[in-house]
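Model the whole thing, not chain by chain.
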Amino acid sequence: MQKKRILSGMRPTGKLHIGHYVGALENWIKLQDEYQNFHLIADYHVLTTDLNTDDVYQNTIDMLIDWLAAGLDPNKSPMFRQSQIKEHTELQLIFSMLITVHRLERNPTLKDQIRDLHIKHTIYGHLGYPVLQSADILLYKGDFVPVGEDQVPHVEITREIARKFNNQYGKVFPEPEPLLTRFARLPGLNGDAKMSKSLNNTILLSDEPGVVKAKLKKAVTDPQKIRKGDHGHPEICLVFSYHKKFNPDEIPEIEKDCRSGELGCFDCKMNCASKISSFLEPIIDKRKYYEDNMNEVKDILSDGEKKGRAEAQNTMAEVREKMKMG
Ligand code: TRP
């Protein structure tokens, strides 16, 4: 039987942080044996919020190296740039006829971005963000889309567009479903709910042990626990949530000793830093290998683009045939 398909992607934001790993990458890596994965670098989507493209290529390479270093296998999971496969823009145009402006204006992820980035006048392409994303997913006939919660509205729009196309012209597309990650997000070092490059509160997958220690030293903890001996509240402490992910075996002990005051924040943070660094060590080693072998990275990308393009061309041929525009 043919494997079900996974399609997921990220905008190229440069080096990834442990929040990206926990929220997405870890899941992609687990899924690549059971499913046929495709992974997209959404470089055109960058333009929706930033017209400056000077860093897009370097950010693409940095992100791709992190994907590979963390364990995405290019033989199982082709990886490619949206901008290098012109079928994305072609299908995006057709899809833009299958959805109303009103429906796109109701997209809660767009509303959040408009609020967070203080956008006064929405760009046409930004309103159409999920239409391009629908083309990304449906060109590869993705059955499942492993994403964070903020992307669920985009998958919902994708389903609506697939249904509309299939009803109008005949069945070509599946109606993809989101696959939510269990550990949806890691809090940032400053106590913010989300780790994010723009908030400058991240631990990168490429951070060396000294850097991880220094970052954790400054991490915000329970404000009521000022010195060792004070009773802590692990449930509100972000360091505790990192322990849950990277040091699960010691959770009961840390929880007890934090509450009783026996464990001080400094020791707890240094323990956490060392567990995170043990987790990162093989990733950092693999990253160095790829940095020293850039030709291999470029070959992986061009091979992924070849495979992606072949899929995309097949789907577009079907689309044109159904539309009698072959
Ligand atoms: N919108 C996604 C994000 O910001 C990136 C993305 C683009 C994507 N195309 C996709 C995710 C297709 C999943 C499937 O994270």
